[in-house]
Write a structure and sequence with these properties.
This protein is α/β, with parallel strands linked by helices. It has a single domain, classed as TIM Barrel. 31% of the residues lie in helices and 12% in strands. The protein has an 8-stranded parallel beta barrel with strand order 3-4-7-8-9-10-11-12, surrounded by 4 helices. A two-stranded antiparallel sheet has the order 1-2. A two-stranded antiparallel sheet has the order 5-6. Helix 5 runs parallel beside helix 6 and helix 9 packs parallel to helix 12. The two termini are 26 Å apart.
Length: 446
């Protein structure tokens, strides 16, 4: 329950945070100037996250992005005038030296914090340098099974091998998130979804985990299976999803027992029509009833906040956001607390929640983006986005039963540009310069 005292201190706390963030951004303006985007711009394989619309419910090639300019040095005084000497013409003065770069405050290491990146076809050194600048421990990369196994037993490992080596070499824990079965495993080859026979997934996960034994810390099995767009060709059914998890987890366990196995998180949509989506709380209860707890080390959760601050709940008497404020699925705090309660009800209170995606969108600086149907992205400023992200990390990590938390996303804007909804959630602008949320995460206390 909200009180006047709590509201006063919340207001003061938020004001101090945003004042500090504004000072940090001012001091580091030069560091956030345009930087060249990665040289390659293929279409990413990451799942399209425009589901949050209400209708469907390499090495740096320029100065490092962790530097800024200091004030311009003072001009030496003009020579003194004598009766026979005039002032030295300005054109005869030596040119001013360029500004001297000064490092940003060092990144604070944050155990259990992570960020989702896209590493296929990009300047990997630059992208991982950006990630290191955040001080996070985890990197998540989504992998489409169909891009690895083109035909039964015919694998293309080259780029994924390089990604795994580079992420490990940069000192991160790596999570691979698997989805999108090859067409030859699906009921309808034209659809995007799971294999008809879950055993095929178990076979592939066994091969994958054996190849990267000891180098991939965690595997997330599928993505948002309660959403039709992610689960085409088969009925939306939590029990069918748990059958897929059972096979996938078995493959991982046999090949790399030390790797963590996390269930793919349901999507938060506010929809429960059984066709477009099944409500995420309903779906999670179905997963628990189908025995998911016997196969995984953690339950994936995607507690997106839409335009609602992380501290708000859906049944609060008033809301800051003018829309998407009438259902628990639209609130970060409610989603985490509701999932924990569902696990406790199902006797799985020892199983942690892994926040494998979360975030808030802002179209500040991306004004050309079409937000028809998800106008709430215009209700979050870049400064508010920064505050929400940090507060979300800190709130989640302070809750009982919450494991690693992975923010979505780092660098999609540098690949797809300003026209895609995914870029509104990113920490970088299309030119590679920092958004306020990047700098806020960099210096945030864990």
């Amino acid at each position: 329950m909200h009180t006047d005292v709590r509201g006063f201190f919340t207001f003061i706390h938020a004001g101090l945070f945003y004042l500090g963030l504004a000072l940090l951004l001012t001091l580091n303006l030069a560091a956030c100037g345009p930087q060249p985007a990665p040289t390659a711009s293929p279409t990413p394989t990451d799942t399209d996250h425009s589901l949050y619309l209400p209708a469907v419910g390499g090495e740096p090639s320029s100065p490092t992005p962790t530097q800024r300019a200091t004030p311009t040095p003072a001009i030496s005084p003009l020579p003194s005038l004598t009766p026979t000497q005039g002032a030295t013409p300005v054109s005869d003065l030596s040119p001013l030296p360029p500004p001297t770069p000064t490092p940003l405050p060092p990144a604070i290491f944050k155990p259990g914090w992570g960020v989702q990146v896209h590493l296929f076809g990009v300047d990997m050194g630059q992208t991982l340098a950006w990630a290191q600048g955040l001080g996070v421990q985890w990197i998540k990369q989504q992998v489409e099974w169909t891009n690895i196994e083109h035909a039964p037993g015919e694998y293309e490992w080259g780029e994924l091998d390089y990604i795994v080596d580079q992420v490990n070499g940069h000192g991160f824990y790596l999570m691979l998130s698997l989805n999108h079965a090859p067409e030859w495993t699906r009921t309808d080859p034209l659809e995007y979804g799971p294999p008809h026979d879950p055993a095929e997934f178990g076979r592939f996960m066994g091969v994958l985990a054996a190849r990267y034994q000891g180098r991939v810390a965690a595997y997330e099995l599928w993505n948002e299976p309660n959403l039709r767009r992610e689960w085409r060709g088969e009925p939306l059914d939590a029990a069918l999803f748990v059958a897929l998890i059972r096979e996938g987890a078995g493959g991982v366990r046999a090949a790399d027992p030390a790797a963590q196995v996390i269930s793919g998180a349901p999507a938060v949509t506010g929809i429960n029509d059984g066709e477009t989506a099944i409500d995420d709380r309903v779906y999670l209860r179905g997963m628990v009833a189908a025995g998911v707890g016997g196969w995984v080390d953690g339950i994936g959760v995607h507690p997106y906040g839409f335009a609602n601050p992380p501290t708000e709940r859906w049944d609060d008497p008033a809301h800051r956001a003018p829309s998407h404020n009438d259902h628990p699925s639209f609130f970060f705090r409610d989603t985490l607390q509701d999932y924990r309660a569902i696990l406790v009800e199902g006797g799985l209170n020892a199983l942690p929640l892994w926040v494998t995606e979360f975030g808030w969108p802002s179209v500040d600086g991306l004004e050309s983006m079409d937000t028809t149907g998800w106008e709430y992205a215009r209700d979050v400023s870049e400064t508010e986005q920064a505050g929400y992200v940090v507060e979300g990390f800190q709130m989640g990590r302070a809750m009982d039963g919450v494991g690693p938390m992975i923010l979505w996303n780092l660098n999609i804007a540098t690949i797809w540009g300003a026209g895609r909804p995914e870029s509104a959630y990113g920490l970088l602008r299309p030119d590679g310069s920092y958004r306020p949320a990047y700098l806020a995460v960099r210096v945030a206390e864990p």
